Amino acid sequence: MPLYQSQQFKNEINSSMPDDILKSWEMLKRLSSNFTIENESAKMIDENLHIVIQTYLDQNRDPDQAIISEFSKMLANLEKGGGAPGGGKVDEKQVKAIIEDALKNRKVSSDDLSNELKRLISDTRLISYVLPDAEKGKAPKPAKLRPISIKIIDDLRIGNNVMLIGGAGTGKTYLSKQIANNVWGKPPKVINCSQWTSPTEIIGGFTIDGYQEGKMIEAYRDGHVLLLDEMPKLDPNTAGLLNDALSNTRLSGKDAIIQNAKGDNIEKHPNFACIATGNVYPNSTDIAYAANNKQDLSLLDRFAGSVYFLTKDEKFEKATIGIKFIWQVADRIRDIIEESKWEAQMSLRWMIGARNIFIREWERKHNKRKDGLSAHEGLTFAEYLDKFIGTFTKEQKALISSKINYDDVMYKYKEQLLSEKYETFASEELS
């Protein structure tokens, strides 16, 4: 039994296939060392990829040629067994010509597909992993989606609007974009919400450059995830423009028509979905987040039952960052910020940046990059950390440096930089 289900298509993969399939295929081969080792990330890709490949091949095979081949086999068998009607010799070429002539104008429609294949085409989402340049070589394996992601994806696929609530740095925006890019296969349409967000950005409008379509309209029409980042900051009157679209996410066709700023009727794409993020649930004002607004109950009802309160997810962060000392430093700084109740944050975005910079620096140190730079010539992890700490007050900087034991952090960093293999989290630490 093969290690990976996609192996069965080894001889059918070719350059005429869509780029998404080819990229995922190459990623699967690379992670599995050409199907010779078991790899968790490879298995996760394989779980969806083999269905996508099968669906693509079934859609693009020539059914007429398949029928001709079957007839040819049957005729050949008849000849061998002398079982032709009337006992005469079967002329395979003649029969083949008759079949081709009868089928030459025949076109395949959706009715020709089996119900099972229709279901697969409808339900399948290709999950692709694109490793940035900085993550090649000895970089950690791509992280799985957070466990909560599966619930969120279920919510979105059955037509519910999702709201993610959590403090700064809990990964709300990162998680939303990860779902959009990896599951929907296309980037989200993002509205960065504030009291200054205009109706033009939502439903479109006329500008000095002509008519500009709204991001909500584009997502609704083209099947993107609409990401309302920091939605509670919207002016409640402007937020009312979202109501029509968000009330239609379970509907389809002519039952799900909205209008843009020009009055054009826009029909909902089956893949339209909406994720809103915020620091607090906007059913009241909040002293800690003064920029947030209390939102109308009719808007909040669009998210009823699908509100997720996010907190720090250590397992997900460790799996995403991979490099042990970087996550430990970041987590300690976050604890200091929270204990001191400072208006600051240690975000997953900063952790990923620190990881990518360190990997690039390590690769230069070990001559694994072809850019011709030495490790100290490019941006270093030490500089990246210092620039972050430099955003705090003098007293805060002193406290952070003391509590993380800055000298020890620098010693560990240099030790890892010189090492032939830097330390990553063991599998038991991620389980």
From TrEMBL:
* A GO molecular-function descriptor: ATP hydrolysis activity
What the entry lists under Pfam families is as follows: AAA_5
- InterPro entries according to UniProt: AAA+_ATPase (IPR003593), ATPase_dyneun-rel_AAA (IPR011704), P-loop_NTPase (IPR027417)
Alphabetized SMART domains for the sequence: AAA (SM00382)
Q: What is this protein called?
A: AAA+ ATPase domain-containing protein
Domain AAA+ ATPase: where?
158-313
Highest classification ranks of the organism: unclassified sequences, metagenomes, ecological metagenomes
